[in-house]
Amino acid sequence: MNIQRISLIAAAVGTLALSGAASAQDAAKLAQEKACLACHAVDKKVVGPSYKEVAAKYKSDKNAEVNLAKKIRAGGVGQWGQVPMPPNTTVSEKEAAILAKWVMSQK
Predict the structure, then answer these.
(1) What is the DSSP string of 14-50?
(2) Which residues contact 6 (CB under 8 A, 6 or more apart)?
(3) Would you write out the chain's pLDDT as a tens digit for each of its 107 residues?
(4) How far is the C-alpha of 8 from the C-alpha of 28, rounded, in Å?
(5) pTM here?
(6) Measuring CA to CA, which residue among 93, 87, 97, 101 is closest to residue 36?
(7) Pick the CATH number of 3-104 from 2.40.440.10, 1.10.20.10, 1.10.760.10, 1.20.1050.10
């Protein structure tokens, strides 16, 4: 197995372990505490896309939660226009996984 595949498997196992650890209410509270809601909302565009738009865009991507968790921590630009999403260095890897799972659950 290559390193990338091992990393993806480890991340998937970690995400499964988190699945029962945080309720949707806990994840929404975490999004508020980590200032995610300053730029995003569940159902409407603010500065960045709504969480429902993100979930819809990546719904067929089997690696969406892992990639989104990385994006939450590292930031990025270009997927939704030229307004950059700054890195959120106050979010731990575990918190990013919880947030990513919650975002991808929005319908």
Answers:
(1) HHHHHTTTS-HHHHHHHHHHTTGGGTB-SSSBSSS--
(2) none
(3) 545 444 434 444 444 444 445 899 999 999 999 999 999 999 999 999 999 999 999 999 999 999 999 999 999 999 999 999 999 999 999 999 999 999 999 99
(4) 25
(5) 0.78
(6) 87
(7) 1.10.760.10
